[in-house]
Amino acid sequence: MSLLRSLARSVQLAGYFAKFGTELLIRRPATREARADWLHRFAASAIHGLGIELEVSGEFPERGAMISNHLSYLDIIVLAALHPCVFVSKAEVANYPVLGWMTTMAGAPAACTGSAK
Length: 117
Hints:
By secondary structure, this protein is mainly α.
């Protein structure tokens, strides 16, 4: 039963990627605020649609920088679902199929990897 549930959730998540990826392709948000809003709607819709419950302790900062040593990529989706924000990603993410393009379009600048090019 858990295999079927995992498969169904994977298909559902792929649907969110297709829906919001198409929106991103068509609208191509130009400002950081518009990109943060797109990412927030994508993440919040996916979290809600997949039935994931979030429990928040404390206040989410309204402005400024938040430094987080996240443990998984789910942390990024959770933070984006809570509040419109823009992330910094490692440079390699830009080369990931589909996700790299979406990350770049969502406004995430690549961090310096320390390697000379």
